[in-house]
Amino acid sequence: MVYSIMEKRKIHIKRASINDAVSIALLGRITFTETFGDLFSDKKDLLEYLERTFAVDKIEKGIEKDNNVFFIAFMDKLPVGYGKLKLHSENKFLEDSNICQLQKIYVLQDFLSLGIGKQLHSCLLKKAIDLGFNAIWLSALDSNQRAIDFYINYGYQSIGKHGYTIGKDDFELYVMHKKFN
Length: 181
Prior knowledge:
Blueprint: H1 5-8, E1 11-15, H2 21-36, H3 43-53, H4 56-64, E2 68-75, E3 78-86, E4 99-107, H5 116-130, E5 135-141, H6 145-153, E6 157-166, E7 169-179
Parallel strand pairs: 4-5
Antiparallel strand pairs: 1-2, 2-3, 3-4, 5-7, 6-7
Helix pairs in contact: 2-3, 2-4
């Protein structure tokens, strides 16, 4: 019998613990650079952002916060992606205060086509719904059409834009949200 590569691989997603902080920090650095690294005019700004945002101790503290929920995805025991949900995260574009923020879904580039992002998204949405939130929101870089299309496909709607500066570079992000029924 012939099996496809996908049939042989086992994807496992679990809620992240403090023991996963090193893997998440490394995944964050790699996936952020893969996705956005070429947008930086000064690579020093990128490196400073990575150090500040994906330092292991910062990820450990984030995992320990009651207001954060991290999930990590493995393929054949190899960490390949992660997602982060920030609970009780209000947004100026939404009047509802019973909302949460999907802060991150990142998957290593070599594994993007395997549906791991979809599975992480499903875990994050299920957690938000199980916790009784009315809606979820996120920010997506306006030039990241792959991400925008992904979220539109799952029922998110654009509700505004905001700017974000890293070092010398300014970025525009769409604010998108999805209501739960």
